[in-house]
Amino acid sequence: MSFFLLYLMVGAFAGLMAGLFGIGGGMVIVPVLIFSFIAIGISPDVLTHIAVATSLASIVFTSISSVWEHHRNKAIIGRIAKHMTLGLVLGTSVGVFFISSIPGPVLQKLIGFFALILSLKMLLNWQLPGQGKEPGAIGLGIAGGVIGFGSSWFGIGGGTFTVPYLTWLRIDMRKAVATSATCGLPIALAATFANIAAGWNHDDLPHWSTGFVYWPAVLGIAITSVPFARVGAKLAHSLDSALLKKLFAVLLFIVGVRFIVF
Question: What is the pTM of this model?
Answer without folding.
Answer: 0.86
